[in-house]
Amino acid sequence: MTAAFSSSTGPGRPYGRPLPSSHTPSEPLPPARFAFEGQTWREIAHLLANLPLALFGFVYVTTVMFTSAFLTLTVIGFPLLAAALMGARQLGKMERIRARALLRVRVDEPSPLPFRSGRSGGRADEGFFAQVWMSVKDPVGWRSMLYELIRMPWAIATFVITLTGLFVAWPVLPYIVRGLTNVDRVLVRSLLSPSDELERRIAELESDRGVVVDTAAADLRRIERDLHDGAQARLVNLAMGLGLAKEKLLEDPDAAASMVEEAHGEVKLALQELRDLARGIHPAVLTDRGLDAALSAVASRCTAPVKVTVDLAARPAAAIEGIAYFTVSELLQNISKHSGATSAAVEVWRSDDRLLIQVWDDGRGGARLDGGTGIAGLAERLDAVDGLFVIDSPVGGPTTITAELPWRER
């Protein structure tokens, strides 16, 4: 079958679709160009930058390692090694930033070293040597140094392969650089990323230690304030009153007897304040009879009737028992002061390796962690011992607060 074409293509033109006016049959095709996508170019840039950066890191690590090893016989050897490991941390941080920017690898930053100078109240030299030893034991710094040592021969190989591929093997270069950068991704993830569970736990323990220290300091300040404003002031007045009674004993026995009687009343009030203070530190009933009796005593002072149910076949460790007691005590105080409740309930029981506490009231509700009633402090204290604190308190009530503590045998 023969196809017919129009002769409108002009004289001298072959039949068929006309060629573009900018070309003639004798012109060559346009030259081949690089047509890589953006990620390929980022990977190429990463591989080409490997060599100078690896050279710097390798020289740094080998220099400080040999110098530190030579000087360990002197007093500056370990401080120098500690400083070198902190510097290696910074090199690792730079590599993580580069991997995120060029390789699109999401690598979390490891926890910082837990330097807490001044908290322990120790001498300055003790704090310095403790920090040096902590830096020397830093696994993040050692992994960063290992990364720099391993990367040097790999960086030379990848630089040569990538540079050669740009001029010789560019059609398959995207596949080559993807394979090479995948190895880099593995190195970054294995040596420069935090060991997730361990690093997370270290960060949590550091945070919890700070909470415990701050809480203990606040408790000491509260005890000091209560002693100064309460029992101490009463005892001072008592001493003054007895001194005046002694002076009047011969001149005015009736007035002296009245002063002694007043001093006797002051002694009773001072003793009661000291008992309340001791109960706030650790009540004797909790030590002697356990949570059931101690929580019943606390509930009796609440403005709303409280039903207490403690179902424990054994007693937990004293520290856990104390935290449970003070948690319930604080919550019952909040019920008395803020809830307007007409009834409340406290339940304590054990479930596997957890001690569970639930405090309920029929008050107005609306309790929040940021409500300013001490609830946030309770949540922090429980979190410091791997506990949980959950609030269910809609506006209008009722309020149910559940706390969990780890069960530890006495």
Task: Please characterize this protein's 3D structure.
Helix 2 packs across helix 3 (124-136) and helix 9 (291-300) packs parallel to helix 10 (318-339). The protein has 410 residues and is α+β, with helices and mostly antiparallel strands. Mean pLDDT is 77; it is low at 1-27, 29-34 and 116-126. The radius of gyration is 38 Å and the shape is elongated. Strands 1-2-3-5-4 form a five-stranded mixed β-sheet. It has helices at 38-71, 77-103, 124-136, 139-167, 173-192, 196-251, 253-281, 284-289, 291-300, 318-339, 375-383; strands at residues 306-311, 344-351, 354-361, 388-392, 399-406. It folds into three domains: 38-194, no CATH class; 213-281, Single alpha-helices involved in coiled-coils or other helix-helix interfaces; 285-406, Heat Shock Protein 90 (2-Layer Sandwich).
Task: Give a quick precis of the structure.
With 410 residues, the chain is an alpha+beta fold. The chain is built from eleven helices and five strands.
Total beta strands: 5
Quickly count the helices: 11
Strand content: 5-15%
Give average pLDDT, whole number: 77
Span between N and C termini?
102 Å
Low-confidence stretches: 1-27, 29-34, 116-126
Helix content: 55-70%
Main pleated-sheet profile: 5 strands, mixed
**How many distinct folded domains?**
3
Structural class estimated from helices and strands? alpha+beta
**How would you write the strand order of the largest sheet?**
1-2-3-5-4
Computed CA radius of gyration, to the nearest angstrom: 38 Å
Run of helices and strands:
HHHHHHHHHEHEEHEE
Shape: elongated
